[in-house]
Amino acid sequence: MSTHKRYFVNNLPDYGGGDVIPDKGEIKRQTVALVQTIRHKWHRHRQNCDGGLYVGLVGAAYMFYRLSKMPEFAEERDRFLEQAMEYLEPALEEASYTKGHGKKVDVVAFLLGNAGVYAVAAVIFKALGNIKESEKYVSEFKHLAATITPVNWFSRGGDEFLVGRSGYLAGALWLHSELNQDVLGESAVSAILDAMVESGQQYAHHHRSRIPLMYQYYGTEYLGAAHGLAGILHMMLSFPLWLSSRPHAKELIRKSLDALLALQTPGGNFPCAMDEIDGQRPPEDELVHWCHGAPGTVYLLAKAYMVYEDKRYLEACIKCGEITWLKGLLKKGPGICHGVAGSGYVFLTLYRLTGDAFHLHRAIQFFRFIYSSEFKQARTPDSPYSLYEGLAGTACFISDLMNPEQSSFPFFRVF
Ligand SMILES: [Zn+2]
């Protein structure tokens, strides 16, 4: 039977007490090895730019930038930034082609389109001291806000994370933190968030949804981080000024959050979409991924705990950790979207939330598993070197273990 499971059975030793200290030397060596594999295998030409930050070359540019900021890689900083540029250049060429010839959604999408490329370009040029180019790409990013502000700008679902408003706002938050500059400004951000609330209310009303804010993506009412409610609510909770000025929205968000919370299974997972609620998937077939399920919903719950200070959200987070420990050694590969590194980030998030070494231990166990002989039987993802499916994201997870207090899932900040 075990051959049909989506995950390897977890036989890893659980936390046995005491301090947990990551072996920085080992982690650094493994990170460097991943970087070398990416450098040797992932060719830097335009055909590999499709899929933006999610599976395109710009994801490697992001990874190199991220590593360049780590104190453990201080000596490699300049080289990493140069290498970031090598991956960024073809992505910028492709983005400029898309801008002239592509569909609107491919231009404004953050994870899958140009918005993400512009944000990464703005940040890397700034790190290289090229302020003029940095400002040019900040401005390219900013201009996209006007396209996504109308409530129904994209009829297939314009609120989720990969192509919609949530991803764009995550990009704006990231730019803010990296450039130390509020690139969109309060009124543009508020207009986007207001549109997200309006869009969710309209949809819920027309479809008599049991959740006051509900959304669809290509006709499916997804609930998870990538295309669904969890990613959308997470972003809404990430703008405290807007939230405090919109008590009605704050209440709707909380009600929607609680309706989602009520769908958590006894095991701790969340269904993939509303159409699974009644005819639920059998537990052995449930998806426990960042994109669908508890490993992506945990970020919303952690954020909700910080905003509303309600212990129920913390308890739900801990349950997400339990299902991830049990079913998170995914056979789909080492990536962060639906792979072992994405599961590992759940434990890093719980560690930051609680300070409990128990979770750090689990994160390190998942890191070790990636190098086990058993994991060699895992599938090779379609985009094996990419940020969300492949090794670039794995490198982000592994290197974050050196400073777990600062760890964060790419573009999905909680703290
Ligand atoms: Zn996924």
UniProtKB/TrEMBL annotation:
Keyword Zinc attributed: yes
Give the record's GO CC terms: plasma membrane
What sections of the protein cross the membrane?
51-68, 107-128, 222-243
Q: Does the keyword Acyltransferase apply?
A: no
Extract the Pfam families matched here: LANC_like
Q: Which InterPro entries match?
A: 6hp_glycosidase-like_sf, LANC-like, LanC-like_prot_euk
Q: Which residues bind Zn(2+)?
A: C291, C337, H338
**Family from the record:** Belongs to the LanC-like protein family.
User: Which GO annotations describe the biological process of this protein?
Assistant: carbohydrate metabolic process; peptide modification
Q: Which GO terms describe its molecular function?
A: metal ion binding
What keywords sit in the KW lines?
Membrane, Metal-binding, Transmembrane, Transmembrane helix, Zinc
Give the protein's recorded name: LanC-like protein 3 homolog
Q: Which residues form a coiled coil?
A: none
User: What SMART domains does the entry give?
Assistant: LANC_like
Look up the domain of life of the source.
Eukaryota
